[in-house]
Amino acid sequence: MSDAVSPLASPFPALPAIAGVTPHVARAGYKDWGRCDLTYVELAEGTAVAGVFTRNVCCSSEVEIGREAVKQGRARALVVNAGNSNAFTGYRGREAVEQIMEQVADHLDCTMDEVFVSSTGVIGVPLPKDKARAGVEAALVAAPCSWEEAARTIGTTDTFPKGALATAVVDGRTITLAAIIKGSGMIAPDMATMLGYIFTDCAIAPGYLQELLSAANRKTFSCITVDSDTSTSDTVLAFATGKAGNQPINCSGCPGADAFAAALDDVCRQMAHLVVKDGEGAQKFIQIAVSGAVDDESARKVGMAIANSPLVKTAIAGEDANWGRVVMAVGKAGEPADRDRLSIGFGGTWAAKDGQPLADYDEAPVAAHLKGREVSIEVDLGLGEGRAKVWTCDLTHGYISINADYRS
Amino acid sequence: MSDAVSPLASPFPALPAIAGVTPHVARAGYKDWGRCDLTYVELAEGTAVAGVFTRNVCCSSEVEIGREAVKQGRARALVVNAGNSNAFTGYRGREAVEQIMEQVADHLDCTMDEVFVSSTGVIGVPLPKDKARAGVEAALVAAPCSWEEAARTIGTTDTFPKGALATAVVDGRTITLAAIIKGSGMIAPDMATMLGYIFTDCAIAPGYLQELLSAANRKTFSCITVDSDTSTSDTVLAFATGKAGNQPINCSGCPGADAFAAALDDVCRQMAHLVVKDGEGAQKFIQIAVSGAVDDESARKVGMAIANSPLVKTAIAGEDANWGRVVMAVGKAGEPADRDRLSIGFGGTWAAKDGQPLADYDEAPVAAHLKGREVSIEVDLGLGEGRAKVWTCDLTHGYISINADYRS
Fold first, then answer.
1. Which residues from B are below 8 Å from A315, CB to CB?
2. In a domain, A13, yes or no
3. pLDDT grade for A406, boundaries at 50, 70 and 90
4. What b/e string do you get for A315-339 counting C-beta neighbours within 10 Å, with b at 16 or more?
5. For residue B81, which of B125, B42, B21, B121 has the smallest C-alpha distance?
């Protein structure tokens, strides 16, 4: 955790315990820092698991192994290493992951592929096996910790711990989803994610949980960007212990399936927004709402082109309603657009309509809107019914300071 | 022109006069600044023209009109307005361009489509017709100016005037290419360019000139990026007056065709590098050489993914040999790559080979290399014979300062 907390930080929510889930933290000492950096979460037998992973071709061994293991659908434990991503470390990195899986599987008397491992931090340094072994050993005997401690322990350049909560009534029972997530830079998940973990007591079949998680991902994690850089380690896993005792959900027609899906979407959206709000150097949270595109996916791509434009992001940092830069970003997105039908607004006030600045455009309400912490940009392409919302943060001196100094 | 000159600036070269080309500058007063902002270049009858333009869908009227006009292959004049890009200004913007074309065509007794107009500056404000008319009127009667004055006059956020020179022997005669270019931010031409003008006394058929310019563009302007943002006004035009008196070149087998093509490539490469060296906030010029890709275009795309990565660019700004960020950028490029065959070096020293950090990697020579103004990154994908070089600059506090303040 960094010292200077993001001005967009939210207080950590009061996350309840989830039956069948027990988090612990320990010090592996992956970096020379006086904090816990290994998180171990024990899961009850029969816990279902689903996951989405980075599409970065140069992904870590953790991602490769996790992507395979999630297919069998069951999990008994999660281990998260902070301070070393173990990515681009060849066979030595892979051996370290397998050692952790074996150590935990021996302890729980489960199979290795029921143990999920993630690592986050610097790329290119093999995870030291001795530190990992001692860290896991300590975590296995540590007293259970709070969600907030776990959320702090998985963080690296994050400036605040991030948690999310949602509930739904399923089969007459209230089920709970508790989630923790880390992420601040190298954030442009595009069809994947950062490190995020969702725990629920809901009973749900792994295949259907995967289907719902993938759908939620498309609307949430795939719609955020901090810096357009896609990490080699992005992972979101959802664990369902089934301890709520509901009739297991296994299809979209099942009682409670819609309620659970809505709660899962809600918690994923909260998590995605928290990552943007801790974007490196972020001073403002930006929502970009695109309408009138030829379809929803085209709207999302136009939104992401705007969200990834350094010129748009610096304009917002400067509280400048520079809609010309938004026009530029729409035009370079590679999606259908017609300059003469394009309209652009800020905070609900149109600045330009149908390809021209509005003659009676009043910049005063827009200027006031841009001074706030939460900024919205509205773009209407005037072509069809496609729409999407994406989220990003502004690009400030803080981003440069953080990233021109990190590592070495 | 900005006050603080880029540390990467080159002195303006001694560009000779080109027979048949006469530059003039005047004050249109597009902005409230005490400098010339309208450039008028008169071209001898029979001058051939070729051009490449932005692919941004929201392009300016200047680009739309120029793209059509270049097809007829002849030019008599060039007018460049600085301080107002006239983009996203609807019919009013188009009328201003047509007024300039008509005014100059009347003066020269030529057709309107032989008058090429470009504008650069803020987006969304229609070019004021009265200022344009008075500016053109002044320019038509102004004394001829130097190339350096013209190069200064087309600039906006540029910190130094940019010129390039090349010669070739064609048909026993030495022909000359003189070029001026402007550009500093919103630079990611990708198949197009910024505002650049090449003047030569060579006799060459317009169609063949276009072919050579497009080929040069692919290797030069399409291989640079400052900030991944593609302008709405990018234009490069080449004018050939034919005054050298050589046998006109009209095909690749013609005497002197190869020499002329090499000189054109050379001048385009010089121009492209100058724009990067004046990249907003640039402190270092970065060359990225990619080899071992499945083909050259794939190598170029991998190179551009690295060149556009904010995390790579800030690492270079911090003189940090953070090759893990290069791995990340290779992996997100969307091109064929194999993590376990990937090698990465800086300034000729390999840091990682075949997917792993080198055991005997000595960071000392790399650290020394990164302290310089010119940095090279080498990436070998280990897959095939495809190779490309691309160029960018580092991402610094200067970029943020420039772009969080500009306009409004």
1. 403-404, 407
2. no
3. low
4. bbbbbbbbbbbbbbbbbbbebebeb
5. B121
CB contact under 8 A, A228 and B309: yes
Last residue of a domain, one of A259, A277, A295: A277
* B408 → closest Cβ in A320, A342, A352: A320
Nearest to A232 among B56, B320, B327 (CB): B327
Contact assignment for A92 to B356 by CB distance below 8 Å: yes
Residues of A annotated catalytic, as ranges: 193
Final residue belonging to a domain, choices B229, B259, B277: B277
Residue ranges of B 348-367 with Cβ closer than 8 A to chain A: 352, 354-357
Q: How many domains does chain B have?
A: 2
Residue B371 near chain A (CB below 8 Å): no
pLDDT above 80: residue A245:
yes
Together in a domain, B59 and B202: yes
State whether A400 and B395 contact (CB < 8 Å).
yes
B232, A331 contact by CB (below 8 A) = yes
Q: How confident is the model at residue B408, as a pLDDT?
A: 42
A9 band by pLDDT with thresholds 50, 70 and 90: confident
Query: Which residues make beta-bridge pairs with A286?
Result: A375, A392
CA distance B244 to chain A (A): 40
Same domain, A250 and A113: yes
**Tell me, what's the ipTM?**
0.80
Residue range A297-350, pLDDT digits in tens: 999 999 999 999 998 999 999 999 988 889 989 988 889 998 889 999 999 999
- Taking the Cβ of residue A230 and every Cβ of chain B, the question of whether any pair is shorter than 8 Å is answered with yes
CB B61 within 8 A of CB B99: no
Across the interface, which of B330, B340, B405 has its CB nearest the CB of A90?
B340
Residue B65 lies in a domain: yes
Active-site position among B157, B159, B193, B232: B193
Nearest to A310 among B87, B89, B227 (CB): B227
Q: What is the pLDDT of residues B168-178, one digit of tens each?
A: 988 888 999 99
Closest CA to A212 of A387, A391, A52: A52
Q: What's the confidence (pLDDT) of residue B192?
A: 41
Known active-site residue B54:
no
Taking only residues 308 to 347 of chain A, the set having a beta carbon closer than 8 angstroms to any beta carbon of chain B reads 308-311, 314-315, 317-318, 320-325, 327-332, 337-340, 342
What distance in Å separates residue B213's CA from the closest CA in chain A?
22
Domain that holds residue A55: 21-277
* Region of residue A242 (phi > 0: left; psi between -120 and 50: alpha; otherwise: beta): left
**CB distance B315 to A402 below 8 Å:** no
Q: Do A122 and B355 touch (CB under 8 A)?
A: no
- Asked if B293 contacts B383 with a C-beta cutoff of 8 angstroms, the reply is yes
The CATH number covering residue A76 comes to 3.60.70.12
Residues B8-59 pLDDT 10s: 888 999 999 999 999 999 999 999 999 999 999 999 999 999 888 877 777 8
